[in-house]
């Protein structure tokens, strides 16, 4: 007998709801205009890559099929975002030595989408839903995890491009 959706929700561990609250707060903070340091601008994309990779690992392992689908999702989405020139309006504020980043609801939507997908995959796996045995299940879910991370990676690329060249290359060794 398949459990009712209310049973699935009520039997989820308490920490899951704390995580959802944290994601909501973080997403709402991304919705307002702000100044961001160059290192801080790269933290969220790295964290989201690690989170989605961990979701992949815990759900399916890091075999060739799941990892390959995840990597294609990351690369494809990040490339599409860069080619589309999104997000627009990120500028460098030399006086503040920071990036001016316009607020966006996209990170909140991505956090909620990742949460919903991870929750659904966990619930489907826990109840032994037939969909988990479909041959397309692993590559579709894995590529979705990757695509969500690709959004953050593409956004980081836009921030990187908004930085003056001397700052982007300040970590590179000098050849003089």
Task: Describe it.
Strands 1-3-2 form a 3-stranded antiparallel beta sheet. It has helices at 5-10, 14-29, 38-60, 64-84, 106-127, 137-162, 165-168; strands spanning 34-36, 91-93, 98-101. It is globular and about 65 Å long. The longest helix has 26 residues, at 137-162. The protein has 176 residues and is mainly alpha-helical. It has one domain (37-165). It contains 7 helices and 3 strands, in the order ααβααββααα.
Element-level helix/strand string: HHEHHEEHHH
What is the 3D form? Answer: globular
Give me the secondary-structure category. Answer: mainly alpha
Number of domains: 1
Radius of gyration: 19 Å
Q: How far apart, in Å, are the first and last alpha carbons?
A: 72 Å
- Care to count the β-strands? 3
Oligomerization state: single chain
Could you give the topology of this structure?
Elements: H1 5-10, H2 14-29, E1 34-36, H3 38-60, H4 64-84, E2 91-93, E3 98-101, H5 106-127, H6 137-162, H7 165-168
Antiparallel strand pairs: 1-3, 2-3
């Amino acid at each position: 007998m398949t459990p009712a959706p209310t049973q699935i929700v009520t039997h989820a561990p308490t920490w899951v709801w704390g995580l959802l609250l944290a994601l909501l707060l973080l997403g709402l903070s991304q919705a307002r205009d702000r100044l961001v340091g160059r290192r801080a601008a790269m933290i969220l994309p790295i964290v989201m890559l690690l989170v989605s990779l961990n979701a992949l690992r815990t759900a399916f392992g890091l075999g060739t099929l799941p990892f390959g689908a995840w990597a294609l999702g990351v690369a494809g989405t990040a490339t599409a975002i860069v080619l589309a020139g999104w997000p627009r309006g990120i500028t460098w504020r030399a006086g503040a030595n920071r990036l001016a980043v316009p607020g966006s609801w996209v990170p909140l939507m991505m956090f909620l989408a990742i949460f919903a997908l991870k929750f659904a995959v966990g619930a489907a796996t826990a109840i032994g839903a037939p969909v988990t045995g479909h041959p397309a299940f692993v590559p579709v879910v894995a590529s979705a995890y990757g695509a969500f991370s690709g959004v953050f990676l593409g956004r980081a690329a836009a921030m990187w491009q908004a930085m003056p060249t001397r700052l982007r290359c300040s970590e590179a060794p000098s050849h003089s």
